[in-house]
Write a structure and sequence with these properties.
Blueprint: E1 9-14, H1 18-30, E2 36-42, E3 72-76, E4 80-84, E5 89-92, E6 97-99, E7 102-105, E8 109-111, E9 124-126, H2 130-140, E10 145-149, H3 153-164, E11 168-173, H4 185-197, E12 201-204, E13 208-213, E14 219-224, E15 229-231, E16 234-237, E17 241-243, H5 246-250, E18 261-263, E19 274-276, E20 281-283, H6 291-304, E21 321-325, E22 328-334, E23 344-350, E24 355-361, E25 368-374, H7 380-385, H8 395-399, E26 415-417, E27 422-423, H9 424-434, H10 439-446, H11 456-469, H12 486-495, H13 501-508, H14 517-527, H15 538-541, E28 551-552, E29 558-560, H16 571-584, E30 587-590, E31 596-601, H17 606-615, E32 628-633, H18 647-658, E33 667-672, E34 686-691, E35 694-699, E36 711-717, H19 719-736, H20 743-749, H21 753-761, H22 769-782, H23 786-791, H24 794-797, E37 816-819, E38 822-825, H25 828-831
Parallel strand pairs: 1-2, 1-7, 2-3, 7-19, 9-16, 10-11, 10-16, 11-12, 18-20, 32-33, 33-34
Antiparallel strand pairs: 4-5, 5-6, 8-17, 13-14, 14-15, 21-22, 22-25, 23-24, 24-25, 26-27, 28-29, 29-31, 30-31, 34-35, 35-36, 37-38
Helix pairs in contact: 1-6, 9-11, 12-14, 19-22
């Protein structure tokens, strides 16, 4: 920015973390006259970076914030050690003296390490900076066990990081349940089930007694007060934070009884020239450890430092949180606990699906006070927006999907982005005043969604509502990295010889991608037959289950599901399945899809199991993928006295034709040999029912939480007509559906519905039928079994290990007991 004159005031900021970075950027944007010369002094050797995403550093992510421009001097590798309030100077650890007219203390916090015996042993770390993570990674080489002390947000992130380094990881939390500051007991218990199901031990409600050393003098065990011992060659403390207020203490500024620099609502200390923001500041008796409140304080001080000083105040903060911990969605908002006297709790628990939901409402059930979501946090954005306001429906409706809002019906004062304190009205004003038409523009203008990102879906709904109201076409962009819908990306990949995500994002997108676009593009590439899903870059894009070509189960093992077309299987193949289950000690279950699931396989066992199955003629059943699962059938006219067509033969023909076909969502099918419908064809994505004259085809049905009866599409079809219409239906769906959209909701979204679909794939209204036919022919002609290909490739087989630094070592945390003559996961209370 161009200053009108030389700066006449000097601002010194002590500390260069997220809050400091936000302060400097906010002041630079508003100080158009260039009144302030800014000096930032940070003790780390690198400038400010995103601490919220700290764990991503181990995955190679660049966490650095954009550098400051303009008249900003950034000093790294030096710590402010003293403040002379009389002379208005600070002194650094390198002897540097800097004068100030205003001083902002943004020194953050330090990890709290409980005063237990052994905390200074080699192998004990804290989890706070990039340097901490680098030290942990280096020390962990060649070691197998680790534990994190602290079951809060950062502690669970640290546990995930340790597990990712190949160590058997555990969590020690003194509170009775995990994340006690965000979750109630029910939510904490459900989160514990998820985490223990991933092979991570949780020790809650028992304090530590000491850290004990091994023969080499380094930490080896954690001893608890109940007498139990946890093996841990690496121990990471993440048990809370303490405000770094030593500078304030040293110069006589007031601090809180339990720490924190005392400031008023403008974030000013007792000294008019000294301010404090972020985790070191004590506002109204509270220290905030979340990025949102820290950013809000930075904005307040930036406003107050302007030449025509503003009147902004820090009026508390929304401490709502949403994150994905080790693949588990977790969220809390408002007051997730008891609330005021008379408040009511509406709770839903599904232990099978691993879902816990709770809403806290007023005594008349009309006002939402807070809530907890574990295992399914899709409705977080909308629910959080209604905290303190009138519910748009009954509480139970909001728990079960009745929470969607167009965005246009939210009150203007509703806080949409708690990280950056952006309201619905702020977003609407920015859209209107700046003629914004996409989410990246809204994010750039308002900062909404630029921190944790959990509010982005709601930001998009507000944007869509505003554009629709203004008569402007609404963008269908897949995410902020691509300005195209999934269907448009499909056409780009298909027509442009795009063979990788990197190529696609470089040529047609921005940034590095996210957990929305990466799996979606991986699915598109797979649908077009663009290489094996574990080939090179493709492997890193896949959803969780695709990483090991198997379904992850609750205890960290995997299920093996060979394909059994139409449910028809020879005695010889049945014997092979039985022998494999016996030899590897697996649980066997005949499923509703007429095949046999084998449960309890450890990741390193998967190749050996599949070698036996592939050699016997089996192939992948794709139970792990967004692909065709099964084509269920009755025995039809071959055996049944009511059957009018050979339903088993047709089911096998369809399953072998569409096996491995990757799609936006899983696909299920069935063929019934008569109108008695024993195969339940009308509850499938495509279902077939025999008639005296041929086949009736039903489309776009599904079971599940929101079942939908399939629609009758065509009657009395010949075999070839039936297959032609199914070919075109599937290919048209794959090309045009949104990510994770079932055929039922896709059909409902088509303008014209079933009649339009009939015009497209029967009457060839769009002139694409020949192309759809050719696409299916390519799929059928190029199909290759994913597991057979994996077994033939040593590079792909290298990923099938429990620990990267001990490939042959099984995960010792996996344990079973016997019930009804078969194994089942050991109950959590026994494992503890």
């Amino acid at each position: 920015m161009e200053a009108d004159s030389e700066p006449d005031k000097r601002l010194v900021v002590a500390g260069h973390g997220p809050a400091s970075h936000r302060l400097v950027e906010a002041l630079r944007e508003r100080d158009t006259a260039g009144a302030w010369a800014i000096t930032v002094i940070g003790e780390e050797t690198r400038p400010a970076y995103d601490r919220v995403a700290l764990t991503a550093h181990l995955e190679g992510a660049d966490l650095a914030y954009p550098p400051h421009g303009g008249e900003v001097t950034v000093v790294t590798g030096e710590r402010v050690t003293a403040i002379d309030r009389g002379a208005r100077t600070v002194t650094t650890s390198a002897g540097r003296v800097a004068a100030y007219d205003a001083l902002v203390l943004a020194t953050g916090s330090a990890p709290f390490v409980p005063p237990v015996e052994g905390r200074d042993l080699p192998g004990v770390f804290v989890y706070r900076t990039i340097d901490d993570l680098d030290a942990i990674r280096e020390y962990a080489r060649g070691r197998t066990t680790g534990a994190v002390v602290g079951g809060g947000l950062l502690g669970l992130e640290a546990a995930r990081a340790i597990q990712g380094l190949g160590l058997r990881s555990g969590v020690v939390e003194v509170a009775p349940w995990l994340m006690p500051r965000q979750l109630d007991e029910g939510g904490g218990a459900m989160l514990r089930r998820h985490i223990e199901g991933l092979g991570m031990a949780v020790h809650a409600g028992v304090p530590m007694r000491a850290l004990e050393a091994g023969e080499d003098g380094a930490v080896r065990r954690i001893a608890l007060t109940d007498g139990s011992v946890i093996d841990a060659e690496v121990v990471v403390f993440s048990a809370g934070i303490r405000p770094r207020d030593e500078l304030a203490r040293g110069c006589g500024l007031p601090v809180g009884e339990r720490g924190g620099i005392v400031v008023d609502a403008s974030c000013r200390t007792e000294d008019p020239a000294v301010w404090a923001i972020g985790e070191c500041a004590l506002v109204d008796g509270a220290v905030y450890g979340l990025v949102g409140p820290c950013f809000s304080m930075a904005e307040v001080v930036a406003d107050r430092l302007l030449p025509d000083a503003g009147t902004a105040v820090f009026a508390g903060a929304d401490t709502s949180t949403k994150l994905k911990l080790m693949g588990v969605d977790v969220a809390s908002f408002g007051d997730p606990f008891a609330g005021p006297e008379g408040a009511l709790g509406v709770t839903y628990t599904d232990p099978v699906a691993g879902v816990y939901k709770k809403l806290v409402v007023s005594d008349d059930a009309r006002t939402l006070l807070g809530g907890v979501l574990v295992g399914d946090a899709e409705s977080y954005g909308t629910l959080r927006a209604y905290v303190g306001g009138t519910l748009p429906g009954a509480p139970e409706q909001m728990l079960f999907g009745g929470t969607e809002t167009s965005g246009g019906d939210l009150p203007g004062a509703t806080v949409i982005c708690s990280c950056n304190n952006v309201t619905a009205e702020g977003i609407r004003c920015a859209i209107s005043e700046q003629s914004l038409t996409d989410v990246p523009g809204v994010k750039s203008s308002t900062r909404a969604g630029t921190s944790c990102g959990s509010c982005v879906p709601l930001v998009k709904r507000i944007l869509d509502a505003e554009l629709t109201a203004a008569g402007i076409e609404v963008s269908k962009a897949l995410c902020e990295h691509f300005g195209y819908s999934r269907a448009e990306l499909f056409d780009i990949v298909r027509g442009g010889q795009v063979t990788s995500f990197t190529q696609l994002v470089q040529e047609h997108g921005t940034g590095r991608g996210c957990d929305i676009c990466k799996p979606a593009v991986a699915s598109i590439l797979a649908s077009l037959g663009n290489g094996h899903i574990l080939e090179g870059e493709q492997a890193a894009l896949q959803d969780t289950n695709d990483h090991f070509l198997a379904n992850l189960q609750k205890n960290g093992t995997y299920s093996v599901v060979p394909r059994v077309p139409g449910g028809e299987i020879t005695p010889e193949k049945l014997i092979v399945i039985g022998e494999v289950a016996r030899d590897f000690g697996l649980y066997t279950k005949i499923t509703g899809g007429q095949r046999i699931d084998l449960f309890g396989a450890r990741v390193e066992q998967l190749p050996d199991i599949w070698r036996r199955l592939v050699d016997a003629g089996f192939e992948s059943g794709h139970a792990y993928g967004k692909a065709l699962r099964t084509v269920k059938s009755c025995v039809g006219s071959t055996w049944c006295r009511y059957g009018v067509q050979d339903s088993a033969a047709m089911a096998i023909r369809l399953e072998l034709r569409y096996r491995g076909l990757r799609a936006p969502h899983k696909l299920k099918s069935a063929v019934s040999g008569c109108a008695r419908e024993c195969a339940e064809a009308q509850s499938k994505d495509f279902g077939v029912i025999a008639t005296e004259n041929g086949w009736n085809l039903y489309l776009a049905g599904n079971g599940g939480m929101r079942p939908r009866h399939a629609d009758l599409f065509a009657t009395d079809l010949t075999d070839d007509e039936l297959i032609t219409y199914i070919d075109r239906f599937l290919m048209f769906y794959i090309r045009t559906a949104d990510r994770l959209q079932r055929t039922a909701t896709w059909l409902e979204s088509l303008d014209g519905g079933l009649d339009y679909l009939r015009e497209v794939i029967v009457d060839d209204r769009l002139g694409i039928c020949a192309d759809l036919d050719a696409a299916m022919a390519r799929h059928v002609g190029t199909y290759s079994d994913e597991w057979r290909d994996t077994l033939d490739d040593p590079d792909r087989l290298r990923r099938f290990v429990s620990f990267v630094n001990a490939p042959k070592t099984p995960d010792p945390s996996i344990a079973f007991e016997v019930e009804r003559d078969q194994i089942k996961p050991l109950p959590l209370e026994v494992k503890r």
